[in-house]
Amino acid sequence: MITLLFLFVVLNLSAFVLIGYDKYLAKNRKRRISENTLLILVVLGGTIGSGIAMLFFRHKTSKKSYLLRFWAIALIQIVVMVLYFYFLKEVHIFENYK
Q: Residue 26 belongs to what domain range?
């Protein structure tokens, strides 16, 4: 469990830092980090860090194509977690009645 927590923190910090760094690159007209790279971190679990970074750095907040993909990934993650905990609860309920 500690390993998952550590992985979650590292992914979210990495996503936060990469969004901030991409903003820095954009301001200085340098080669940018691809949106796919940023979204891969979101898919892997860096949704919270990426979302906070977008608000904090005011970056990628007006690009509709990026936001659509970001929120689609976030919604899928929420649905998966709700279903996981719902069915986990169901399994434990049935185990108590055996």
A: 2-96
Question: Which residues 6+ apart lie within 8 Å of 54 measured at CB?
Answer: 19, 60, 61, 70
The DSSP secondary-structure symbol of 60 reads S
Give the number of other Cβ atoms within 10 Å of residue 42's Cβ. 24
What Cα–Cα distance (Å) separates residue 49 from each residue in 33, 38, 77, 90? 16, 11, 14, 31
Write down the pTM of the prediction: 0.83
The total number of structural domains in the chain stands at: 1
At residue 86, the pLDDT reads 85
CB atoms within 10 A of CB 88: 10
Amino acid at 6: F
